[in-house]
TrEMBL record, chain C:
Membrane topology of the entry: Multi-pass membrane protein
Protein name per its UniProtKB record: ABC transporter permease
Primary localization class, coarse: membrane
Domain of life the protein comes from: Bacteria
InterPro entries cross-referenced by the UniProt entry: ABC_transp_permease
Pfam family, one: BPD_transp_2
Length: 312, 319, 315
């Protein structure tokens, strides 16, 4: 009995590999870790809404819970279900490559969303769609440089160790800061794990350790606000410049109050819609560039009015 | 082998969990058109082989009355090593990774033996520390196997069955036979059931426990190597939280946390139960948030059913 | 007596403080000590409750998820129904989940490790379903008296520290000097004998989970007020940190023994280790490796000290 089903399955698989369906398209997505923060959750609902609005699309939504191995299992399950395209929000830019290669071999086009995969995997994907995190780190460094007039001592609170977004932002920040502003010294970097309370604790320890801190760069606003909380508690918030990334509503409000210098505006809705559109373009047979970055501008108090308050 | 009468009276440890495995298997076959196919079933076997290998070693340690929380971290270290050292040759890399698992197991075992510190705290420390070693070694980087032969091995099959599944099932068989047919297996039960009596019976308690920690360390490393070959890569966070799922699977399989009681067949059932549930719910597209609640509810239900079935035969007040 | 048996770990604690102070001049400053104790108080408050569960012969691994649940709840409801109602409702629902734990373990007699592991998963799911996966925030952070619990001071001492101290003292007194406390020790130490001597074991076990849930609710109050917002996984991993603190203090996982006083010391050691290593400026992974070594050394020295005392009193 098993054999027959398997045989039937492999025949169908071959047929999808050779003939592109005209639609409706079944698109599977495996996300990084929904629920760990609002960005990812908002992304998911925006993605679902965008798919809902398009009657030519049917989606299978999966969540890897931050676990690479589980994500690879999910990619295999999607190959199993013979979806027309797979969208992956990589839990890790290196480890998912072999699984992507298998999808590629099975004739299923893969779109990578939000965070990049390593160079070696690019030949197996149809396209990437998402923000440029290295550029974001660099933009934050530029803001830091402006805010401090090129002189000062700063600390960095980075994201979860080992995750691509965390490493790219930190890397982009450190590199740009060194070339643009040699006068600003990065005293120390410790991870805040994308967690506001954890960032608050790290900042409290920094404040004890360093008598003078002129600036804080946090890997996202959630952690940045944690650092701000700590500085307020110690009565030192006025002397410190706070710069984050992924502007959260709390960060937006803090910029409005003048407590927070700036951040990077990145909309999960844009992110999700771009990913779906890229997948549809690929399925429709259009020529799609490999790298599709959507705009993630700097946001500071002067230009705050140009941006809507983030919904997350 | 096992008499049917004994089977239904609950005299064998495998009974409740296997009935549950069969029940959910039938359930998902009806609920999802993609579930019941040879390729999906082998998929499940491959996906469960990781937790499965951890659980094999864990069963021994838990029958001893100990526990090992460091298996997830050990898995991660072995995975990083096997991919990271590959430029020096695949054999060297595999041996180094397995050796690392054995050494960590030996360290855990030695500390438990020589200091008498509770295994829970020893391995909780190791869980944190070994993760530190991974990040120290990898410098936060993920490794990616430049040699696709390694990843191809992870994806290879013998006939229709994936090699990883075959390795897992072979290990299960060996561990089952060792536990039921050898002196070491008997000693494992004796030590967990009544440590004082086992010392009187001439078992060298510390050494014996250390061997079982080495076994679990070895299997954790093996799971890491195989998982890395399945992915063709390794990440420093690999294996996080696996210890909790492993312990859950082992206890679902009927092994007592207090020691002295358990079986590999039950553990296999426990591992499959979790694997089938996860895969089936994926196939049915249950939203991720609900999966957590459903998994929790099912675990508790299995405990309750297990209690009801075994109620007449057990008199113990153990907690 | 309980003070004396904690001596080994206390000596280690003081020694460690001296060592750290060589490496970092800020380490022993008053402000740093206060910071560390305040940071440790969230884990400490939870650990007080879990210690009672452990003395009663069980485990509670669901406290991390429960902390996420309670914190998200109280922060989210703060703006919707007002701080007073939010706090009351949060306490009620947290205790309800504690009661579910207590019922399954006390009355159904299920294995506590697996029940609370299952609850760890289920409660995390509930949090996510409740919040829809979104972060929750308190809009007006300046104007609410809710800030008192996490950021306030009474007579120069931070409120989290006071709450931690108060809970620890009350529970320690209850455990050492009341019939209820003696019954919990009896149930954890020798369940059979306890039942024969007429103790209602089921109720005793049930009640320990209510105490644990109550402590988690108090911790959520501090955490929510300190951060003025919450992520859905804010309590993730706390269960193991709490256990590490308790075991460091010298309470055995077997039940029937232990004290709140020891737990307080254990939790503080953990807090000072983390803080000291961070002040010394090592990268996080070195901090993890050193934590491994220190945890084992601490417990070992404590154990060796106890054995020595046993030998000297016997000879």
């Amino acid at each position: 009995m098993f054999k027959k089903t398997a045989l039937a399955a492999s025949i169908v698989m071959m047929s999808t590999a050779t003939v592109y369906a005209e639609g409706p398209y079944r698109i599977g997505i495996t996300q990084n870790n929904v629920g760990v923060d609002s960005y990812q959750t908002t992304y998911e609902s925006a993605f679902e809404a965008a798919a809902e609005a398009n009657e030519n699309v049917e989606i299978v939504v999966l969540d890897a819970g931050g676990d690479v191995a589980r994500q690879i299992g999910q990619i295999n399950n999607l190959i199993q279900q013979r979806v027309d395209a797979i969208i992956i929000w990589p839990t890790n830019g290196q480890a998912v490559i072999p699984a992507i290669r298998q999808a590629h071999k099975a004739g299923i086009p893969v779109v990578v969303t939000n965070s990049k995969i390593a160079e070696a995997g690019l030949e197996y994907i149809a396209a990437f769609s998402g923000p440029d995190n290295v550029q974001q780190g660099a933009s934050s460094a530029e803001m830091m440089c402006d805010a401090l007039d090129g002189e000062g001592q700063i600390v960095q609170i980075s994201g979860q160790p080992g995750y691509t977004t965390a490493m790219e932002r930190a890397g982009g920040f450190e590199e740009r800061l060194a070339e643009l502003c040699p006068g600003v010294e990065l005293l120390e970097t410790q991870p805040g794990n994308w967690n506001r309370e954890r960032a608050q604790r790290v900042m409290e320890d920094f404040l004890t350790k360093y008598d003078r801190i002129d600036g804080v760069y946090a890997g996202d606003d959630n952690m940045g606000v944690g650092a701000l909380n700590a500085a307020k508690g110690a009565g030192r918030a006025d002397e410190i410049v706070f710069i984050g990334a992924t502007n959260f509503a709390v960060g937006y409000d803090a910029i409005e109050r003048g407590e927070y210098y700036g951040s990077i505006y990145q909309s999960p809705v844009d992110d999700a819609e771009a990913a779906l559109q890229t997948a549809l373009d690929v399925l429709g047979g259009q020529e799609v560039p490999k790298m599709n970055f959507f705009e993630t501008p700097k946001i500071t108090a002067e230009i705050l009015g140009e941006f809507d308050r983030p919904v997350f | 082998m096992t008499s049917l009468k004994g089977f239904f009276r609950g005299k064998t440890a495998i009974q409740p969990i296997w009935i549950f495995v069969i029940a959910i298997f039938i359930f998902f076959s009806f609920m999802s058109e993609y579930f019941l196919s040879l390729s999906n079933i082998t998929n499940i076997l491959v996906q469960t082989s990781t937790i499965g290998l951890l659980a094999l070693g864990m069963t021994y340690v838990m029958i001893n009355g100990n526990i090992d929380l460091s298996v997830g971290a050990t898995l991660g270290l072995a995975a990083s090593l096997v991919v990271g050292i590959q430029p020096l040759g695949l054999t060297v890399a595999v041996l180094a990774a397995l050796a690392a698992g054995i050494v960590i197991g030996a360290i855990n075992g030695l500390i438990v033996w020589k200091t008498g510190v509770n295994a829970f705290i020893v391995t909780l420390g190791a869980m944190i520390g070994v993760r530190g070693l991974i990040f120290l070694y990898t410098q936060e980087q993920s490794f990616y196997a430049t040699n696709f032969a390694f990843a191809d091995f992870g994806a290879s099959t013998i006939g229709p069955i994936p090699v990883l599944a075959i390795i897992f099932l072979l290990c299960t068989l060996v561990m089952h036979l060792v536990l039921t047919r050898t002196g070491h297996g008997r000693n494992t039960f004796a030590v967990g059931g009544n440590p004082e009596a086992s010392i009187d019976a001439g078992i060298r308690l510390g050494r014996h426990m250390m061997i079982n920690f080495i076994i679990v360390g070895f299997f954790a490393a093996l799971a890491g190597v195989l998982l890395a070959s399945q992915m063709g890569a390794a990440t420093p966070n690999l294996g996080r939280d696996y210890e909790l799922w492993t312990i859950t699977a082992v206890v679902l399989g009927g092994t007592k946390l207090t020691g002295g009681y358990g079986s590999i067949t039950g553990t296999l059932g426990g591992v499959l139960a979790i694997g089938i549930l996860r895969n089936g719910m994926n196939m049915m597209q249950v939203p991720a948030f609900y999966v957590l609640v459903i998994l929790g509810a099912i675990l508790i239900s299995v405990l309750i059913i297990d209690k009801k079935l075994n109620a007449p035969s057990t008199k113990e007040v153990r907690i | 007596m309980s003070f004396l048996s904690a001596q080994g770990i206390l000596v280690f604690f003081l020694l460690g403080m001296v060592v750290f102070s060589f490496f970092s001049e800020q380490f022993l400053s008053q402000s740093n000590i206060m910071t560390v104790v305040r940071q440790a108080s969230i884990i400490g408050i939870i650990a007080v409750g879990v210690t009672v569960v452990i003395i009663g012969g069980n485990l509670d691994l669901s406290v991390g998820s429960l902390l996420s649940f309670s914190t998200v709840l109280v922060v989210d409801l703060h703006d919707k129904i007002g701080p007073v109602n939010a706090i009351l409702l949060m306490f009620a629902l947290t205790l309800l989940i504690g009661a579910v734990n207590g019922f399954l373990i006390g009355f159904m007699r299920l294995n506590s490790l697996i029940v609370t592991l299952a609850m760890l998963s289920a409660i995390q799911g509930l949090v996510l379903i409740y919040s829809g996966g979104q972060n929750v925030d308190i809009a007006n952070q300046q104007g609410t008296w809710f800030a008192f619990f996490g950021r306030g001071y009474v007579a120069g001492i931070a409120v989290p520290i006071l709450l931690f101290g108060l809970l620890a003292i009350v529970v320690q007194v209850v455990m050492s000097y009341t019939g209820y406390g003696r019954r919990i020790f009896a149930v954890g130490g020798n369940p059979m004998a306890a039942v024969y001597s007429g103790i209602r074991k089921n109720w005793c076990v049930f009640s320990t989970y209510l105490i644990s849930a109550f402590c988690v609710a108090c911790a959520a109050l501090v955490l929510g007020s300190r951060v003025m917002g919450s992520q859905n996984n804010v309590g993730q991993g706390y269960e193991l940190l709490v256990l590490a603190g308790i075991i460091l203090g010298g309470t055995s996982l077997l039940g029937g023994a232990g004290s709140i006083w020891k737990t307080v010391i254990g939790v503080l050691i953990l807090g000072f280790i983390q803080n000291g290593l961070l002040l010394m400026g090592y990268p996080y992974y070195i901090q993890w490796i050193v934590t491994w070594v220190i945890i084992i050394l601490a417990v070992w020295l404590d154990l060796a000290n106890k054995r020595k005392r046993l030998l000297t009193t016997h000879s």
